[in-house]
């Protein structure tokens, strides 16, 4: 193949990418998919099988309608639990979240602590140096 043929193939692969690569192209695609905007009014419709092409299975058509309420949430909101039960639930949730945390190893902790101590020492030295320089400058300007 010639060099020109390879360049043409490269251009085709870039243009055949279905996802837009600029913000304007993404807005245009969203407007066409949702059925609003300039492109949708001009008669363009959303591609079949893409988001916004129609109501999902079991969903109501249109975004202007509120989301249907779930069956269990209304009962939980109206039912008031005791203070003790709420504290226990809170502690269980905290414990569950703490189990998800990725804790650093001992080696990582030593490294992080060393970095913090070196940085703090550097900042103390910098502030001390600047304080000394400004003090000498004030002494020169105003005299002692």
TrEMBL record:
Membrane topology per record: Single-pass membrane protein
Pfam families xref list: SecE
Keyword Repressor (UniProt): no
PROSITE patterns xref list: SECE_SEC61G
Domain of life, per lineage: Bacteria
Alphabetical keyword list: Cell membrane, Membrane, Protein transport, Translocation, Transmembrane, Transmembrane helix, Transport
Coiled coil region boundaries: none
Chain intervals for the UniProt region annotation (Disordered): 1-80
Main subcellular location of this protein, as a coarse class: membrane
Oligomeric and partner information: Component of the Sec protein translocase complex. Heterotrimer consisting of SecY, SecE and SecG subunits. The heterotrimers can form oligomers, although 1 heterotrimer is thought to be able to translocate proteins. Interacts with the ribosome. Interacts with SecDF, and other proteins may be involved. Interacts with SecA.
Similarity-based family: Belongs to the SecE/SEC61-gamma family.
Protein name: Protein translocase subunit SecE
Organism: Prauserella halophila
